[in-house]
């Protein structure tokens, strides 16, 4: 064996230990062994159920290469029967040499013959090497065709090459199995993340599709950014690893909501249910006390009292679930909070309690300051929960990105009040997706969903007037129309 061949063998070993993309690995395995064996064509099959599936095909004479882009060759699988030379090699666990397929009656070469008839190619010598992992599990076959001599003439494969290829095949099988294991672990983790995210959304009848929508929008937006960069002759900004890391951050960004009380997360009105019930009961008590006073002759204006209590109920109902409380309504609430009545024991009590007034006087939304602090604590809890996960180096930013999705460029966000360059591009994207879906969602208890164009105007104002969002990313988000592209994907998942 020449020094050059030894060098090639060592290079194959380095390749097998470094590549983790299965498709590229398969392509490079076939290319390397073809170069080492100095042959003209080859096929790499992987075992799938009871047949060998074509994965990578290469023919230098015909200049045909398929499977390297991840799209499988459009050929029917080879049945796992002894008549097929590649199948027998795997079934019997041995390397099979065929010096000349035209003079070998032991195998079925009808497939090769049909291929030769269609292409004008001439298959002669063949070498089929099985691939098995360390436990003997069958994985696939390397099939090499037409070994070439120094002058480019077809010759049988040298016998000494078989041992070399068997060694490489064994290493390749172990590497393929390891890559599969890694991919299975990644898929297991990804599915676990999706389950956890679904569990968060399913806790509440409101907000039940938020994360799923964000992930769908995110996928389409990142694809748009990549395609735009490619069109401009630039490197795509979100290559597979960075793209996966960002999408994982989206799936996990609200995991901290697992510990937020549902009465806060699902609060559709300013008053808590018990407070609302207590107020209505109090109005009924006041009316009943008025009836008693009327019957005893101590009151003569019962109708006026009934009208006042009904007006109080109407005021509270109008304010309780309103998106915004006007100055006029606040003044009416303050006036109501000053009204008093006497119970049967003679105690003087307010029509509207101090706590009820404080809740109803919330200007915007349904949460009090204390409740809002609890709600906002979900990002700190997201960081705490994700700190318990041992992320791989490829996902090392997930925790930080997910826990920062409420930070703004002007430093007014939370929990750390980051600003400008402290907020990575990935976090800026998650924040835009989060706000857009929150604005357009039609399943929130405290507001109707906005039309997309109005939500885009809000994002534009937050970017260009308030300085909270990245103006360029907001503009690109609007250009992408990613929410429209993601619509069918979201419908298909329901």
What count of helical segments does DSSP give? 18
- Reading the helices and strands in chain order gives HHEEEEHEHEEEHHHHHHHEEHHHHHHH
- As a percent range, the share of helical residues equals 40-55%
Shape: elongated
> What percentage of the residues does DSSP assign to strands (E)?
5-15%
Reported by name, the CATH topology of the largest domain is Beta-Lactamase
CATH class of the largest domain: Alpha Beta
The chain-level mean pLDDT equals: 87
The CATH architecture of the largest domain can be named as 2-Layer Sandwich
Task: Give the domain tally.
Answer: 3
| CATH homologous superfamily caption of the largest domain | GAF domain
Low-confidence stretches: none
The major pleated sheet works out as:
8 strands, antiparallel
- Distance between termini? 61 Å
Structural class: alpha+beta
Q: Which value, in Å, is the CA radius of gyration?
A: 35 Å
Structure report:
There is one protein chain. The chain has 494 residues and is an alpha+beta fold. Helix content is 54%, strand content 11%. The chain contains 18 helices and ten strands. It has helices at residues 3-18, 22-37, 85-92, 110-119, 159-202, 210-231, 240-252, 262-265, 273-295, 302-320, 327-337, 354-360, 369-386, 398-402, 425-440, 452-464, 471-480, 482-493, and strands at 39-48, 51-59, 64-66, 78-79, 96-98, 126-132, 138-148, 154-155, 340-342, 348-350. The strands form two sheets. Strands 1, 2, 3, 4, 5, 6, 7 and 8 form an eight-stranded antiparallel β-sheet that branches. The protein has a two-stranded antiparallel ribbon with strand order 9-10. Strand 6 and strand 7 (138-148) form a beta hairpin. It starts with a helix and ends with a helix.
């Amino acid at each position: 064996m020449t020094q050059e061949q030894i060098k090639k063998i060592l290079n194959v070993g380095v390749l097998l230990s470094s590549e983790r993309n299965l498709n590229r690995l398969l392509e490079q395995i076939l290319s390397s062994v073809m170069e080492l064996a100095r042959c003209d064509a080859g096929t790499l099959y992987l075992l799938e159920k009871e047949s060998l599936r074509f994965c990578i095909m290469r023919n230098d004479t015909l200049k045909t290469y398929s499977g390297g882009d991840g799209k499988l060759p459009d050929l029917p699988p080879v049945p796992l029967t002894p008549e097929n030379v590649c199948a027998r090699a795997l079934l019997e666990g041995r390397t099979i040499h065929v010096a000349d397929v035209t003079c070998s009656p032991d195998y079925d070469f009808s497939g090769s013959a049909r291929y030769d008839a269609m292409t004008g190619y001439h298959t002669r010598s063949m070498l089929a090497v099985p691939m098995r992992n360390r436990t003997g599990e069958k994985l696939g076959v390397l099939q090499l065709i037409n070994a070439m001599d120094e002058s480019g003439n077809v010759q049988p494969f040298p016998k000494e090459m078989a041992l070399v290829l068997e060694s490489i095949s064994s290493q390749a099988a172990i590497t393929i199995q390891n890559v599969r294991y890694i991919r299975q672990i990644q898929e297991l983790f990804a599915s676990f993340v999706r389950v956890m995210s679904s569990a968060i959304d399913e806790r509440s009848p409101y907000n039940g599709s938020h994360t799923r929508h964000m992930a769908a929008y995110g996928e389409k937006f990142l694809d748009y950014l990549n395609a735009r960069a490619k069109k401009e002759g630039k490197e795509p900004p979100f290559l597979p690893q960075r793209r996966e890391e960002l999408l994982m951050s989206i799936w996990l960004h609200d995991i901290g909501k697992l510990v937020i009380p549902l009465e806060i997360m699902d609060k559709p009105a300013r008053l808590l249910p018990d407070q609302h019930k207590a107020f209505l009961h109090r109005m009924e008590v006041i009316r009943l006390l008025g009836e008693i006073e009327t019957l005893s002759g101590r009151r003569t204006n019962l109708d006026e009292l009934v009208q006042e209590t009904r007006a109080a109920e109407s005021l509270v109902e109008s304010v309780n679930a309103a998106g915004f409380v006007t100055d006029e309504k606040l003044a009416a609430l303050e006036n109501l909070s000053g009204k008093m009545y006497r119970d049967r024991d003679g105690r003087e009590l307010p029509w509207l309690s101090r706590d009820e007034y404080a809740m109803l006087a919330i200007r915007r939304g349904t949460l009090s300051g204390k409740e809002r602090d609890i709600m906002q604590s979900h990002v700190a809890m997201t960081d705490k929960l994700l700190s318990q996960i041992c992320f791989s180096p490829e996902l090392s930013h997930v925790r930080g990105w997910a826990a920062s999705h409420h930070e703004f460029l002007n430093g007014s966000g939370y929990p750390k009040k980051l600003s400008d360059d402290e907020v990575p591009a990935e976090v800026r994207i998650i924040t835009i997706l989060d706000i857009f879906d929150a604005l357009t969602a039609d399943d929130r208890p405290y507001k109707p969903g906005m039309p997309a164009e109005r939500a885009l105007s809000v994002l534009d104002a937050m970017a260009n007037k308030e300085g909270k969002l990245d103006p360029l990313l907001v503009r690109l988000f609007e250009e992408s129309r990613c929410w429209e592209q993601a619509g069918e994907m979201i419908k298909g998942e329901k």
